[in-house]
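### Sample
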Amino acid sequence: MKLNDALQQLKSHGYKTTAKRKDMLAFFAEADGYRTAKDLIGYMEPTYAGISYDTVYRNLHLFHDVGVLEATELNGEKHFRFSCSHRHHHHFICKDCGKTKTLDICPMDEIRQSLGNYAIEGHKLEVYGLCPVCQEG
């Protein structure tokens, strides 16, 4: 997703695109992988002194609810990234740096067969580990 697409999606759900929200979304537009609320506060703090975790979390959850951000949990903490805008796929996520790699496989055909007559309503596959750079460090 691109920054302008994210801002448009926010507007289409009836939310204002304030300067603070634009700056928050710009952070994710520049980020390579998943980032935490703490990362975002570090980015926002020079411009918005005293920005609260409450403000950041409220907006992160809003962005997630309207489909602008994806969320995952790494090491017991919620991490966010811009939503992917291309075909169905899954991710490998580095537990150290948060970078992602697209996985072009999906195990759902086998899972559907093994579940028989169960009604599957959705799925999300994430594979966790260390990227080549973090393995060296």
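The helical segments are 3-12, 19-30, 37-44, 53-65, 108-115, 132-136. This sample (Fur family transcriptional regulator) is used throughout the tutorial notebook.
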